[in-house]
Design goal:
Layout: H1 2-14, E1 15-16, E2 21-22, H2 27-57, E3 75-78, E4 86-90, H3 100-108, H4 113-119, E5 171-176, E6 192-197, E7 208-211, E8 237-242, E9 251-258, E10 274-282
Parallel strand pairs: 4-10
Antiparallel strand pairs: 1-2, 3-5, 5-8, 6-9, 7-8, 9-10
Length: about 280
């Protein structure tokens, strides 16, 4: 008898047919609870949506409100074979250097003169290309200055399709990372790149040629206004051609940006305002 009572009590705790309660609550009680949580979560969703809407109204679609950027922009090189920044090849073994030319061709294809003439403007050199907004009227999209591939001359890949690698006179392309609003240089002095050997390799680097002359980043490519505001922006480049570097030896090279308002990078950050790489050209 007691077993039947326990069985009946267990069933009634789930569904009581006399009081018509499910898990101790009537249908109206469950309905009120469900209504409460529906209203509660709708309120939370609405509050979240309102908060996001208000926050988004404070943001500029084309320019970040806050920029936590380094005072010294980074530098990178092309071609880049791996993360160690080492370019090692044998002049007589085509398979050791034939990957560099296609990599540079791909990198420089947006700089073809025909593409630049179609997308970008001819600008006045040696001065900033300022395109300020007029009060609440946004001057977007902003125009960009042409950087034609032919500026790189012997390192453009137009006359020499192999960029000098087959002759042991390789070209290295250098670019400065984009920083929104940066105005490098003061009093009309454009930033420029210099490359040199590390101390232990001072007698191995030989002669170098820069393109454009003196390795300058012309002021007309600054300031940069951001990817959305300046969709066709062409980052200026500097090419360095090594004419008679010592063969069959490792040559450690460092290239730096020089500008009178860009501080020298920290020793803890090897890419702040400089880039280091190893170049080895084997002939045996």
């Amino acid at each position: 008898m007691s077993k039947d009572g326990e069985k009946t009590g267990w069933k009634e705790s789930i569904w009581n047919s006399r009081t018509r309660e499910f898990l101790g609550r009537t249908a109206s009680s469950w309905g009120l609870i469900l209504l409460f949580y529906v209203v509660f979560y709708i309120f939370l969703a609405g509050l979240f949506a309102l908060t996001m809407y208000v926050m988004l109204q404070t943001l500029d679609e084309h320019k970040p409100t806050w920029q936590d950027r380094l005072s010294t922009p980074g530098m990178v090189i092309r071609p880049k074979s791996d993360e160690t920044y080492e370019i090692i090849y044998n002049v007589d073994k085509t398979e050791t250097w034939d990957m560099y030319a296609p990599a540079l061709d791909k990198f420089l294809s947006p700089y073809n003169n025909s593409f630049q003439a179609e997308k970008n403007n001819e600008c006045t050199p040696d001065q900033y290309f300022l395109q300020e907004d007029s009060g609440d009227v946004k001057n977007n999209p902003k125009r960009s200055c042409q950087f034609n591939r032919t500026i790189l001359e012997e390192c453009s890949g137009i006359n020499d399709r192999q960029y000098g690698y087959q002759d042991g006179k390789p070209c290295i392309i250098i670019k400065l990372n984009r920083v929104i609003g940066m105005l490098p240089g003061i009093n009309g002095q454009a930033p420029f790149v210099t490359c040199g050997p590390k101390r232990e390799d001072s007698d191995k680097i030989g002669e170098m040629v820069y393109y454009p002359p003196n390795g300058t980043f012309n002021l007309m490519y600054y300031p940069y206004y951001g990817k959305k505001a300046q969709v066709n922006y062409s980052q200026p480049l500097v090419a360095v051609k090594f004419l008679n570097i010592t063969a069959n030896q490792d040559v450690n090279i460092e290239c730096r940006i020089n500008a009178n308002n860009i501080p020298v990078g920290s020793e803890r950050d090897k890419f702040a305002g400089r880039v280091s790489f190893k170049l080895r050209i084997n002939t045996i």
